[in-house]
Amino acid sequence: MAQDIQNTNAAEQDAFEQSQVILTPTQLVLKRFFRNKLAIVGLVILLVMALFCFIGPFLTSYGEYEIFYKHKETGAEVMSSTYSTLSAEERAMYEMNLKAPISKNHILGTDGDGRDVFTRLMYGGRISLQVGFCVVIIELILGVTMGGIAGYYGGKVDMIIMRLVEIFYCIPFLPLMLIVSSVTSAMKVAPEQKIYLLMLIMGVLNWAGVARLVRGQILSLREMDYMQAAESMGISVFRKIFKHLIPNVVPIIIVMATMDLGSVILTESTLSYLGIGLSFPYASWGNMINAVNSSVIMKNFLNIWIPPGICILLTVMAFNFVGDGLRDAFDPRMKR
Amino acid sequence: MKQYIIRRILISIFVLFGVSFLLYAIIRMMPGDFISQVTSGNPQITEEMKENLRALYGLDKGIIEGYFSWAKDAIRGDLGTSFVYKQPVTQVIGDRMWVSFALAGTAFVLQLLIAIPLGVLAATKQYSKTDYTIVAVALAGISLPSFFFAAVLKRIFAVELGWFPLQGMVTARADLEGMALFLDMAWHFVLPVTVFVVTSIGGLLRYTRTNMLEVLNADYVRTARAKGVSEGKVIGRHAFRNTLIPIVTMVGGSLPSLFAGAIITEGIFSIDGLGQTALNAIHNGDIPFLMGYNMFIAILTLLGTLIADILYAVVDPRVRYN
Question: What does pTM read for this prediction?
Fold first, then answer.
């Protein structure tokens, strides 16, 4: 009898233990993240955008710089690749297909130079996203290293690095870019190289924020008990920083990186709009909106400048949604 | 406290030297005859002005020596003469600063009036439909490229409906005075101010919401509720007043930046503030102005952080700087 009771108790215990779902911290974060509807919306937008920009160009026969020509009488259309094979007399019969309306051949029409807007939208997004990722990677490498060193060593090293951070904080970005762009145009830098220069400058100017954040976190983590344990075990400084301190800063870095991706894309588009970012022949969402400066296009050709604007808005917003969701998910204090 | 402020000011001066040296180095990095290249597009620039410029930046000296000769003038307030305006740079900045401030200041007050109540509302109803809507709209606002939003507003309200002027600060050739002039300017400011408010309200709103959420989870709020204090009083008197600490700090810190001018918005709406002047400067290779403008913004930024830190100690008695 007593044996029976013990048996059933043990069985119940097993069943109870099996029904308990034990979540790892990562699972907890994911669960909280996916409960946030805005974050999901953001994630979906980003996936669609990535597919559109990176897979899309393979599905269209139009190139990024393809100019379209229209037959003056029949209205038949040829691409610049075909056009260049035509004889001089035949060419005379064609004119550039400028500002064409929305049609089956051109989902969003053509722009002021006779290029397909929809295709350029894909290539523009590709470059915007690439610039965003490169800049964020540069700023993270610089910021995490410098912030980590400053926070860990403290004292004089911290003092010097933090003054450096303040110096970079005080440099106004846009006015500086205006000067830099006049330098690059004076030096006649090719657009292909200007892209890399742009990424480098943006990354180098942005690291200060990351460094400040990482330093603050490390300062408080340094006082934790497990760091004393690590100290007493005589682990090397390198391992202490990269194995014990940095992983604890990762959540906050991820959030910051996501938000920064959005803001870098926004900044790049602003620069391109001003004509000091990505320039011809590259398509970029920013320089596509630049067409709005012509009052005719602004008034009558909404299909040229509205779509890139909406793309920027959606992408940056999606990064912000996801970043916001991640922040709430990582921070248990936000749970009510 | 006094000691702390003095120490901070000394550090700021040091940082300012760093910033100015970096900016100076960029000018010096330019290829040999940069000045004649930049100014080649502008027929108004005489050989004499170019010589002045070379002397101003000490281009005939070594980089360190040149920097100090430039810095010595800069400390005395001589930032050179603007090419475009033929006036000292400091005077150009002083003149346009107030236009930028009028625009940014109006937008700033509106932002405070809208963002703080909405942020508090969103926090008290976390994860509700209201919260989602407010946060989504705020985030959409930050994500809007200002040049795109300005173009959309102009297309709808100026071109299509004709309610507001396309650009400028006053109606041309109207010669208005007094109240009529003020109203005319206000009418011109509606669209630019809207751009300012919509594109930057999100930051403050989110800040208010996060801080409010943190406070609402604090023990003293729970205690207040347990005592049976009404919900309105809990929010208004116990929670909100504590949220004000970080908000006051942030608001105080951003005061100086209101003078900096907005390059994009002012440029698009042709508002004669510092931002548009900077944009013109680049088209005309007006390097003295751009250098002065950069230094001006750097000073404003330093001033902002200093004010924020001091305010922090003033409004929060727990903070002590030693």
Answer: 0.82
